Each structure stands twice: as C-alpha cells, then as structure tokens.
Amino acid sequence: MKKSKQFWPFMIAAVVVYAVVQLLISNGMMNQFYSNTLIFIAINIILAVSLHLVIGITGQFSIGHAGFLAVGAYISAILTMKLHLPFIVAILVGGIVAALAGLIVGIPSLRLKGDYLAIATLGFAEIIRIVFLNIDAVGGAAGMQVSHLTTWTYAFVCLVITLIVIVNFTNSRHGIASISVRENEIAADAMGINTTYYKVIAFAIGSFFAGVAGALYSHNFYIIQPSQFGFLKSFDILIFVVLGGLGSLSGAVLSAILLTVVSTYLQGYPETRMIIYSLVLILVMLYRPKGLMGTMEITDYFKLWRTPKGGGQHGK
Amino acid sequence: MEWIQQLINGISLGSIYALIALGYTMVYGIIKLINFAHGDVFMVGSFIGFYSITVFGLGFFPALIISMTACALFGVIIERIAYKRLRNATRIAALITAIGVSLLIEYGVIYIRGAQPEAYPDVFSNRSFEIFGAQISSQSILILSVSIVLMILLQFIVHKTKTGKAMRAVSHDTEAAKLMGINVDNTISATFAIGSALAGAAGVIFGVYYTKIDPLMGVIPGVKAFVAAVLGGIGIIPGAMVGGLVLGVVETIVSALGFSLWRDAAAFIILILILIFRPSGIFGKNTREKV
Amino acid sequence: MENKPLLEVKNAGIQFGGLKAVSNLNLVLNKGELVGLIGPNGAGKTTSFNLLTGVYVPTEGDILFNGERINGLQPFKVTRKGISRTFQNIRLFNELSVLDNVKVAYHSLAKHSIMSSVLRLPSHFKGEQEMEQKSIEFLKIFKLDIYKDELAKNLPYGQQRRLEIARALAAGPKLLLLDEPAAGMNPQETKDLMDLIAFIRNKFDLTILLIEHDMNLVMGVCERIYVLDHGQLLAEGSPEEIRNHPKVIEAYLGEEVHDVNA
C-alpha cells in the first residue's frame, strides 16, 4: 500500500540525516552553535507538528500550546533534578503529564468553537504558567536549574517518533474522522463520528508531544523560568503551523525549520525578529490566508500521490 | 473600613478595564473580530499622553484629548490597512492577523523608542479624602469621573446619533444595513475610532494612576479587558462596563486576601468558567448554529 | 413483528426560549415507506429533522426508533442506530476526496484502534483496506467512482447532492432523511433525483422521509404526506388527499400556489 511505500524511504532518509549529523558532531566538524541550532529545529518541528494535529487536522483552534510545553519542561526537570531519574523516563513522563493536562484543558474547552476556544486555551496556558510561577519548589519566577542532557540523538529520535505517530494517525480512519470534524462538524456528527472523542484525542496527542518537546527544551537550557512559556511562545508555535499552511504537515515542518534558522540569526535583534515575524504573519494572512502551502503536502508537488497526506518529510 | 478602600481600588481598576473592554465589545459586535491589537492601542494612547505631558508640557485634560484623537485615528488606520480585507476571511485568519498587528505595534514601539519603562509625571497634587474612614485619593475620584463621563457620552453616541444608529444597524445585520443605504465601511471605521479613543483615554488614566508605563503594558490589561467583555456578554455595551467593574473588584479582592500572585489567574479562571457555563455572558442571549 | 412501525414520534416538540418551534408532532413511518414532509417556509420541517437526528433534544414528547427511545441521544449515536440524513445546504467535507467522504461514513463500521493505526499493526491494514474497497464499491453504485480522487468541493452541484446522499447511505441507515434534495436543481436534475430515490429505495431496503418544496417531486414519489404549518401538523394523507385538503390549500395560498399548479 501507498503508506508502507513511503515509510521505508522516510526511515532511510532519517537514518542518513541522523548519521551524517552525528558524525559531524562527534568529529568536532560541527561546532556547538550549529548542533544546538539543529536540536532547536528538531524541538520546534515537534511542537509545530503536534499543534498541526490539533489545528491543521482536527480544526480546533488552540493558541495555548506553550502551556503543555511548560508542563513537559517542568515535570521532566523535576524528575531529573529532584528525583534523579533517567532522562528518557523524564521525557516520557513529561509527555504523559502534558497529555493529562491536555485532557483536563480539552474536555471542558473543546465544546467551544473558533475564537472562544482560542481564548479559552490561551487562558488555560496562562493559568498553567501562573501555577508554576507560584510553586516555590520549582523556583517561582527566578526559575529552576536544569542539567544539559538533551543531545542530537535524543532530539532526533523524539522527532522521528513524533512524525511517525502523527503521520500514521493522520493516514488512517482516525485521521479522516478528525479531518471530517475540521471540515464540517455537524456533518461529521451526522455521519456517526464521535466528534468530541476525536477532538479530545487529537488534543491529548498534541499535548503529549508538546510535553516531549518541553522535556527536550528544558534540558537544552541551564535554567527554565515561567516567563519562557508565555503568550509569545504560544504564538511562536502557532506561526509555524499557520505560515506553513493549515492542514499541511510538510508546511509546518518547513516553516519550523525556516523560522528557527531566521530567529537564530536574529537572536541579537529580538525586536527586529518580532517585527519580521508579525509582518510575515499579517501579509500571509492578507494575501495567502491558507498559509504558504495550503493543505498541500510537499509530496503533492512531486506528484508521487495526490491525496493531501504527508509523510515524506524528515527533520533536516 | 479597609474593605471600602479595596472596593474603591477595585472599581478604579475595573473602570480602566471597562474603558478598554468597550472597544473590544463594539468591534466584536460589528465585525466579529477579537481585535487583539486593542490592548496595544491602549499602550500607544498611554505613551501619547506621556509625551504630551512631558515634552509639550500639557495638562491632563489636553493630553487626554490629544491621546483620544490620535488613538481614534490610529484605530481607523489599523482597520483600513489590516482588517478591511478580512471581512470575508475565516475567523481564524482574522484572529491571526489581529495577533500579528498586536505584535507589530508592540515591537514597533520598542524598535522606535526602546523597551525601557517610563514614569508618568504627577499631573495632580494627590490629596486624599476620608470617606467612611477610608482613604480615597483624588486620583481615584478623577478616574471614576472621567470614566463615567466617557461611558455616558458613549451611550449618547450609540443611542442618539446617526452614527450610533448606523453602528447598531450594521452589527445587527450588515447586509440589510447596506441595502438601507448605510455606508458600512464608514460605520465600521467609526466604531474603531470610538473604541480606540476610549482605549487611548484608558491609557492616559492608567498612566496617571499606576505611574509606570512600558511598550508591553497593553498585553495583560488587553486580555483582561477581553475577559471583561466576554463576562458581560460580548457585543453588548453595558455588559462591557459591568464586566470590567466586576473583574476589577474580583482581582482587587483576590489581591487583598493575600493571593496577589494569583491575581492574573483569577481573571482567566473567570474567563474559562464563563466560556464553559455561560458563553453568552451575563447579559447575552444564547445563540446556536443553524443546521 | 412486521407491523411495528420503524419510527414513531409521539407529541414531540421543542421550545427555544419562549418560542415553540415545533409542538405536538406525531409521525408514524412503517418499514419501506416513502413519506413526504411539506409545509410553508418556517413551518418547522428542518427543526423536525433536527429533533429526529439528535441535533436538538425535544423538550416534550418521545421519539421511538424500532421501539427504542432515541430522544436525547447525541447525533452520532442516532446515526449508529440507523438514521442518517442529508442537509438542506449541502454539508460535504470539502477538502476531502470523494472517496474519503464516503469513508467517513464507514468509520464506525471499522473497528481497528488508534494504537493499531499508529503502530501499523495488521489489523490496521486489514481494516483500512476493507473501508477502501467498500467505499469504492459504493461509489460505483452511484456512478461517482470516476470522481473518487477529486476533492468534494470541486464536484458539480448535482453531483455534490448525489455524493451527500451516497455518503448518508454508506452509514448503513434503515431510515434516510432527505432535507430538500432537489433544492437548486433544474427539471432534468430533479428527474434524475427522482430516479435515484426510487433506485436506492429498492436497492437498500430503505424507509425514507423527505422534506421538499418541489411539489412535483413530492406528489410524484411519496406514498404519504405530512403537512406542517407553524410548527404543528396540519394534515396527513395520500398525495391526492393532500392536494385537495382545504387547510393545506389555505396554508399555501399566496405563497407557493405556482408549485401546486406546476
């Protein structure tokens, strides 16, 4: 079948990308600046793709994704720093707790639609941030020290798993059901789809991977603070998804790569970066409201097969 | 007696929220857009007031009027440039554009003048009055009276003038209003002008009352004012006033009880409870999607 | 067993605020019948459909399907019980292919879990393949298989209506509710639609309830007709009886006389 046909080229490409980068890093041919940028790209792709499942596939307009990133970041940091558990356990638990947070947020708020859902998720994300701000054990506003444990290997493996899970979910009856909710919720309901179930499931899976990204994120810094997880972080992730094209996985991946590179180079000029970001956002919405790629996938351009479901992307 | 004082503080804060919330609610009522940039218009208004007072040496009232006028103009420019094309776009596209405009204003201001905060000059000798044993500052009284005057003025405009009638007609049914010969574009611009002028006024009042202003000051009051608008029933003008006051008082009470770090969370918890249990707000009517 | 009605609506009604949109609705549909539901604009026809399909929960009365109470069930559960519908304003999944539109209807018949799909277990491939095959066979019945990879929004209007009916049938209903299927169609398309209705009725052993404004179509295909006006049942009877019913003529007079004559 077409799905398995795509799977092996994807895996081979992934292994090659991984091996080349790992080789360059261990040979010392790639300095820390570049390897760090690659790790950042991987984390941002995970965030972009996880939000793509919620907004692009299921059509639920959540703009509080940074809240789940924060949950993953803090929970995993507590696990490694306070409980001295292995990083891999911390990543998993960070994801699971973020997914639970996703359920707690999603079950009441996913009854809302459009703008209202957006504001509710923004509000929830802010509440999550304020909760961490008020827990002394994680350092409050001053933040929490975290060891640097994230490596290219961890980041890349998590990225590949994220892509496989989300692509496999999308290319199944569950994915089609989720898209039907996006396309017309009333008709989906009338066709026997349990719309609430799929909205909540997509939200929980999206939150899980945001949590995984959070674990990688916090262990890539030496300190995490609640202020890193505010509105702006949520908007950053939202921009990946919107810019790439709502409903396009490869679009989300590409824009995550592009914008991470751009913001790495503009690191010294945060205002310029934000001005460019916001102008791009406004111009894209005014002149190409479906995003750069719409619901198209990169594979569609190569005419490999034509239905709008991606799978051929990798994290480079 | 401390409670009366807290109540006055809450009402002062609440009336600032209410002034901002009015703009949100009017714009939402007429084009169904959550104008995220509204909080930033408030910020710009505050800075215009600040420069009017410090650079041009004007008094409070001239500064207030200049700020309101400039913000009205600014609001119309935003609407004409960014939002006008979005009338038939999806709600998501409109919301994202609004987020973009908001970020652009914030970081544009930072780019132009830097991120450092400013201390608002003292424009009034701050006397205190004692009422029922509570210390009431003259500034509180000023805020309240300016807010009340503006709200009465708004009610007058909305209900007694031609523009106000056109605004109500367009928000009720844009197409029908157009057929009746109402200039919809101008009416929408007028709505932005009035809403933005109120935000500008709120900005100056905020500066005088809280004394510290900075380019990101609009974010939190902006979101809170939106909460106030939703609380009162979005699209409903008296709802925004009541919602603002309720929110201000609740926040002050939460702070007074010793949970000041949770103050911001209180607003969001109210928002979420309202959205889940009564999404149409205190004064709103339930509407459902037509199948 | 055979004489038990498929659908029985007993004194059902709904109130929005103070407004009674539909009240005292009594309908009986026997297996295999093709029944029309007509009435002037705003009479409560679509609201009645929404009551039957769980979009609205009736504030009074009962709805029995196969003798089982279904009022209060969510729409997707009503569909799974065997009632499916089309919409007055077509509601296709525009950005999905024609094939995937039908697959959505087969969704609840497939059983493979999310886990099996994510891990690509054999049950996933088996389940997906079954869905695909069934959906293609289904499209063939409706002569829509030539469009199978086309996005639904790109179909011509008449074919969109056809696809919506096909999709509703793919969910495997015993009772099909059609909400103004001929709306916006020219006479030729309407005639094709009448043929299609006759065809699916035989092919799928269906009971059909039909809302329609086109009197030709209603009088031509329906065996029995219910007339609604102001949210109340006005009359019930054969097309001939309805045509000559004084109250019906009164309700329609000045509004849609041209349809009756047509």
From TrEMBL, chain A:
Keywords for this protein: Cell membrane, Membrane, Transmembrane, Transmembrane helix
Residue ranges crossing the lipid bilayer per the database entry: 7-25, 37-55, 62-81, 87-107, 114-132, 152-170, 197-217, 237-262
Major localization listed first in the record, in broad terms: membrane
Molecular functions per Gene Ontology: branched-chain amino acid transmembrane transporter activity
Cellular component, GO annotation: plasma membrane
Cell compartments where the protein resides: Cell membrane
Keyword Transmembrane: yes
Pfam families found in the cross-reference section: BPD_transp_2 (PF02653)
UniProt membrane topology term: Multi-pass membrane protein
PANTHER family from the UniProt entry: HIGH-AFFINITY BRANCHED-CHAIN AMINO ACID TRANSPORT PROTEIN BRAE, HIGH-AFFINITY BRANCHED-CHAIN AMINO ACID TRANSPORT SYSTEM PERMEASE
Name of this protein: Branched-chain amino acid ABC transporter permease
UniProtKB/TrEMBL annotation, chain B:
Cellular component per GO, a single term: plasma membrane
Predominant localisation class: membrane
Keyword Membrane: yes
Subcellular location: Cell membrane
Single GO MF descriptor: L-leucine transmembrane transporter activity
Topology class, membrane: Multi-pass membrane protein
Residue spans crossing the bilayer: 7-31, 51-78, 90-112, 132-158, 188-210, 265-284
CDD domains cross-referenced by the UniProt entry: TM_PBP1_LivH_like
Keyword Endoplasmic reticulum: no
Gene Ontology annotations of biological process type: D-alanine transmembrane transport; L-alanine transport; L-isoleucine import across plasma membrane
Any Pfam family: BPD_transp_2
Organism domain of life: Bacteria
Keyword terms, alphabetized: Amino-acid transport, Cell inner membrane, Cell membrane, Membrane, Transmembrane, Transmembrane helix, Transport
Family recorded in the similarity comment: Belongs to the binding-protein-dependent transport system permease family. LivHM subfamily.
The protein's name: Branched-chain amino acid ABC transporter permease
Species of origin: Psychrobacillus vulpis
UniProtKB/TrEMBL annotation, chain C:
One Gene Ontology term, aspect cellular component: plasma membrane
SUPFAM superfamilies associated with the record: P-loop containing nucleoside triphosphate hydrolases (SSF52540)
Gene3D superfamilies: P-loop containing nucleotide triphosphate hydrolases
Coiled coil: none
Span of domain ABC transporter: 7-255
Molecular function terms, GO-annotated: ATP binding; ATP hydrolysis activity; L-isoleucine transmembrane transporter activity; L-phenylalanine transmembrane transporter activity; L-valine transmembrane transporter activity
The organism's place on the tree of life at top rank: Bacteria
GO biological process, one term: L-isoleucine import across plasma membrane
Lineage: Bacteria, Bacillati, Bacillota, Bacilli, Bacillales
Name the UniProt record assigns to this protein: ABC transporter ATP-binding protein
Annotated keywords: ATP-binding, Nucleotide-binding, Transport
InterPro entries with a match to the protein in the record: AAA+_ATPase, ABC_AA/LPS_Transport, ABC_transporter-like_ATP-bd, BCA_ABC_TP_C, P-loop_NTPase
CDD domains reported for this sequence: ABC_Mj1267_LivG_branched (cd03219)
